[in-house]
Amino acid sequence: MRSILLVAILASLFSPTLLEAQKSPNHDVEISGSVLKTAEWAGFKYKETLEKVIAGDQKATKDFLEFSGTVDGTEALQHAVTCIELIPLAGDEKIGSIIYILKPKLKTVLLSRFQLAQGRTKKTELLKPMQEWAPLTWKALNGERVECSTCNPESGGLSGKPGGMQKPGAEKTVTPPAQGSGSDRELNGKQ
To answer: What are the Cα distances from residue 187, in Å, to 64, 173, 179?
Structure first.
């Protein structure tokens, strides 16, 4: 009886730990149980989005990387592990081109989290410096321009404008005020 009670106590103590790190069903990517709970709370379809990222969906890739702003602490690091493990599956060029167009503050956050995540991943090939196994992602994280030559504009239709996302052809044209209208002088307080 005593041993059954001991087994029950040990099982309850270790079961959250056993459930913590899961693998994607079709891919060898670590997914944290606590990150999944936060994603559910935030209404973010984590696993579905992850599968779309692997399939090459640019919008899903942007959404998945931007989810980094939703998590913090340990969950931020766990999500970063998932992100770096996705790079070889989704493609360095595709991930790098999406990172390039993210806001600068998010790029800075991703850079530091990705470096920390490298110490947590169980994939030995990802323990090398990122410049070796994901040079385009590394460049984008450091503000260098990366464009995807193999990306399909139909799979998300994102432009290469840094810091913002627009569909092709959705750029706004700004018409300068007509000269001599006096509007510039009135706005600046000069007459």
So the answer is: 42, 21, 14
Enter the tokens of residue 179.
């000269």
Polymer length of the chain: 191
Give 141-189 pLDDT, tens digit per residue: 999 999 988 776 554 545 445 554 433 333 333 333 333 333 333 333 4
DSSP for 57-123, please give it.
-HHHHHHHHHGGGT--HHHHHHHHHHHHHHHHHH-HHHHHHHHHTS-HHHHHHHHHHHHHHHTT-S-
What pLDDT digit, counting tens, does each position of 82-105 carry? 999 999 999 999 999 999 999 999
CA atoms within 13 Å, Cβ hemisphere of 91: 18
Q: Give CA–CA dist 56/20, Å, rounded.
A: 27
Would you say residue 45 has pLDDT above 80?
A: yes
162: CB partners within 8 A, 6+ apart: 100, 101, 102, 104, 145
State how far the alpha carbon of 39 is from the alpha carbons of 74, 106, 134, 187, in Å. Answer: 14, 18, 26, 46
Alpha carbon 152 to its chain centroid, in Å, reads 19
Q: What is the pLDDT of residue 112?
A: 97
Angle at 97 between CA 96 and CA 98, to 5 degrees: 90
The dihedral built from the CA positions of residue 70, 76, 82 and 86, taken in this order, carries a sign that is: positive
Q: State pTM to two decimals.
A: 0.69
